[in-house]
Amino acid sequence: AQKVTQAQTEISVVEKEDVTLDCVYETRDTTYYLFWYKQPPSGELVFLIRRNSFDEQNEISGRYSWNFQKSTSSFNFTITASQVVDSAVYFCALSEWDAGNMLTFGGGTRLMVKP
Amino acid sequence: GAGVSQSPSNKVTEKGKDVELRCDPISGHTALYWYRQSLGQGLEFLIYFQGNSAPDKSGLPSDRFSAERTGGSVSTLTIQRTQQEDSAVYLCATFLGKGGYGYTFGSGTRLTVV
User: Which residues contact B114 (CB under 8 A, 6 or more apart)?
Assistant: First the structure.
């Protein structure tokens, strides 16, 4: 069975600080997908990134970057120069190829960016 | 439509009543999921529809919960004899294609059982 763990339940930083959100996953599949979603106070889940298990290349999108390491089963998310608008709950999720593609979510990390 | 639409956005119901939550998916998206997010918790899978296949109901917490998807489009999640522990945000998500790419979530229905 798959499992996603986000050990940090809450992080508080001051604006312009860099912050890394950790995600560790467990799966028996060799083909799987990892995701990050942002849930702002409005409640809607906003897709940030999908990574498949065969692509360990790190990705950068503006102030966001993701570090995927299969050796440690981790898919960490870094926000550089954080802004108040980054305040939200961030979810890491896993989709196994043979599990009907349902998403298994981590418990989420609440990020608070203070001005 | 352009996005996944859920209605109502908020629902307050008395314990013991039945409720129906609706999800209008993105046109053409073949897969539809229901998730539940309890207060301060992560997201819990409930049920999954894929095309004309039998739905995967493995996440439904009890037989008071059921869902249907008519014509491969609109889906309704029904909770019978609601209990206070059913209070949560119910999220619908759809996607096109296999592999999980392109999930789109609705804004959810916040259900409060009093």
Answer: B12, B13, B14, B15, B84
